[in-house]
Amino acid sequence: MKRDLEVVRVFLKLVKINSETGNEKKVADFIIDYLKKIKIKAKQDKIGNVIAKTKGRGEPIILSAHMDTVSPGKNIKPIIKNSVIRSDGRTILGADDKAGVAGILLAVKNLRKQKNVRPLELIFTVQEEIGCVGARNLVFENLKSKRAVIIDSSSRCGFITCGAPYIQSFSGKVIGKMAHSRAPEEGVNSINCLAEFINMWKPGRISKYCVSNIGVVSGGRGGNVICDEINFVGEIRAIDKNIFKKQIGILEKKLKNSCKKFNAKYELKKMQEVVGYNYKKDSALVEMISKGIRKSGLKVAYEKRMGATDANVFCEKGIESLSIGYGREKCHSVKEKIKIADLVNIVRIIENIAIN
Ligand SMILES: [Zn+2]
Q1: Which of 9, 265, 278, 339 is 20 to 30 A from 254, comparing alpha carbons?
Q2: If you average pLDDT over every residue of the chain, what do you get?
Q3: What distance in angstroms lies between residue 273's CA and the mean position of ligand 1's atoms?
Q4: Same fold? 2-164+276-354, 166-270
Q5: What are the boundaries of each domain within the chain?
Q6: 166-270: what CATH class?
Q7: pTM for the whole thing?
Q8: What is the CA(328)–ligand 1 centre distance, in A?
Q9: pLDDT tens digits, one per residue of 10-44
Q10: Residue-level pLDDT at 3
Q11: 132 C-alpha vs ligand 1 centroid, how far in Å?
Q12: Is domain 2-164+276-354 annotated with CATH 3.30.470.20?
């Protein structure tokens, strides 16, 4: 019981430390200090990620969580009622991802007395919430592990996120021809052309695990001017790589055809692609994690999620990686909450994954 309550104590301390993205220093200090007390040396890399390694037996694995939170995340006042922890309603709680951080810290502390623990590489990243910036800046050459478990999914304890999407963000513009609105035949209205493209492409849900979106449209000079240039920003996300590639092709084709029809030109700029993953239930990584969950007395559930985490970045760098759930609810909102029982369970799950 005493052991179980320590995770709550550590979690409450962590959420009270302000760490909106870009300001993770104090959380990093807390982690380094906590690990030092249990005789694990941790250090920060150039961008601020905290990295620690422990010796052990068997295949090494990475355990990782992120230190930053979204806003409003300053002066968080956690409230415990009916064994549920939530904020006072003015801020987020920060269980995303401090429950992951607390889970890892407590697990490694408890594991000191265990036998057959794998060599562990603990990685606490910065700036996950703005595109996994910390993970992208890790020096991967310094890591031995071929597999990683990221503690950062918005699902219950026992859930394994076996699939996460490839994401292609893009920006573009349609270029028409300016003219006075009284003489529309003299111009090419780029807004009309973009409307045609959107109507043809139909952004939204393409299938269960494939979605597309146009999220920003900007441009125009005035109500009496035929719009010569309109900009747009959007994205495509899909868990299946082939479907993903196919949809990017469709986007380009529909844009090209619409512009041809209107006699307009276009530019399309693709940003850095986020690499997705899709593991089978019997893959070695999923089996290793399932075993740990079962040993903790919980039921294993498999899911695919349409959000990206640091796991996507580890995959891109050639490390088999996925994210697991720990029961946080309504994250990225002031209603965010987590049950104490889930905090206790995630510690057990991490411990059992780490034991060979
Ligand atoms: Zn997160």
Answers
A1: 278
A2: 97
A3: 19
A4: no
A5: 2-164+276-354, 166-270
A6: alpha beta
A7: 0.92
A8: 10
A9: 999 999 999 999 999 999 999 999 999 999 999 99
A10: 66
A11: 10
A12: no
